[in-house]
Amino acid sequence: MKNKGLMITVAVLVIGLVGYGIFQGTRSENAATNDSGAKKETYRVGVLQLVSHPALDQIYEGIKEGLADEGLEEGKNLKLLFQNGQGDQSKLNTMSQQLLQDKADVLVGVATPAAQALDNNVKKKDIPIVLGAITDPKGAGLVASNDKPGANITGVSDQPPVGEIIQLAKKLLPNARKVGMLYSSSEMNSQFQVAEATKKAESLGLEVVNKPVATTNEVAQTVQVLAQEVDFVFIPLDNTIANAMETVSQEATKQKLPVFPSVETMVEQGGVATVGISQKELGVQTGKMAAKIAKGESDPATTPIYTFSKGETIVNRAQAELFGINVDQLDSDDTRFVGE
């Protein structure tokens, strides 16, 4: 009888301990706040990325780093919810709805179509959205203004200094007379950048030849056509072209056509040079903003869009040498070389 009583006591204790453990795990996972308004034990950050290519992938890595810099780390107090449209914009709405069902505290849109999909699906304006790498937030209809977004959205602009890129190309190619603009006809952010680049090109006496493409399938042939018409090509921050940069590089090299893109990763893939912003740093800044908003330390409605004030000159020395371009004229202190 004594043994039987002891066994019952032990069983009760075990059941109690197991139940307590389950309670604690559920408590942590649900990220509940207490009545005194203490910080959550777990924050849920949802990220919707348009497609995988080196530039956007670096932004996502930067987002994770920025969240960690602000004290939100996976495995400790962060549940990171990630969705990737893999270039299929028809999936973005479904993925946005999934992130809402997952009850994210803050949503991050990487690339304009992803941010627009989140905005279209967030009916409750108390769910904040942070823009990761959106060239023209106001032009995309996401904010009232870059200084005062006005609702539930703020974030980081990746607008490159396109005028400086055109000026750099003209400096390295002083005899150039025509510049080709290679971009996607369906990306609003690309059209905005091309308009800015065109103004600068024309002010430098360059004739502009526009060659928009509808899909990546048109890229190779378009580069071949441009090689017969222009002295160099400018590529804006464009996800369609970035996804086909290997093709661009191969065709441009065959045709001896210098390419000046707007992002470092595309220079590494075969572009000649750019004045760009680190995609990793764009992501870091995005992650920091998302963390502060999730923790209630800032309000998206009154948080200005963050824009980097200065780009960095990045040169692919191997490509420059291939085209016989003299890069020694550039200030070595302000230039970083890749592809060596």
Polypeptide structure, described:
Pfam families: ABC_sub_bind. It comes from Enterococcus asini ATCC 700915. This is ABC transporter substrate-binding protein. This protein is an alpha/beta fold. It has two domains: 43-158 and 279-307, Response regulator (Rossmann fold, 3-Layer(aba) Sandwich), CATH 3.40.50.2300; 162-276 and 312-338, Rossmann fold, CATH 3.40.50. It is built from twelve helices and 13 strands. Strands 2-1-3-4-5-11 form a six-stranded parallel β-sheet, sandwiched between helices. It has a four-stranded parallel β-sheet with strand order 7-6-8-9, sandwiched between helices. Strands 10-12-13 form a three-stranded mixed β-sheet. α2 packs across α11 (279-294) and α5 crosses α6.
What's a quick, concise take on this entry?
This protein is α/β, with parallel strands linked by helices and 340 residues long. The protein has helices spanning 2-30, 54-69, 92-101, 112-121, 162-172, 188-203, 219-227, 239-243, 245-254, 264-268, 279-294, 317-322, and strands at 43-49, 78-84, 106-110, 129-132, 153-157, 178-184, 207-213, 232-234, 259-260, 273-276, 306-307, 312-316, 335-338. Residues 6-36 have low confidence and may be disordered.
Helices and strands: which structural class?
Answer: alpha/beta
Mean pLDDT: 88
When the domains are counted, the total is 2
Strand content: 15-25%
Distance between the termini: 82 Å
Helices and strands, in order, run as HEHEHEHEEHEHEHEHHEHEHEEHE
Helix content: 40-55%
- By DSSP (H or I, 4+ residues per run), the number of helices equals 12
By CATH reckoning, the class of the largest domain would read: Alpha Beta
Q: Could you say what the CATH architecture of the largest domain is? A: 3-Layer(aba) Sandwich
Characterize the biggest β-sheet. Answer: 6 strands, parallel
Count of strand segments: 13
Radius of gyration over C-alpha positions, nearest whole angstrom:
25 Å
CATH fold-level topology of the largest domain: Rossmann fold
Biggest sheet strand line-up: 2-1-3-4-5-11
- Unreliable spans are 6-36
Molecular shape: elongated
CATH superfamily of the largest domain: Response regulator
InterPro entries: ABC_SBP_TrpX-like, ABC_transpt-TYRBP-like, Peripla_BP_I
Protein name: ABC transporter substrate-binding protein
Organism: Enterococcus asini ATCC 700915
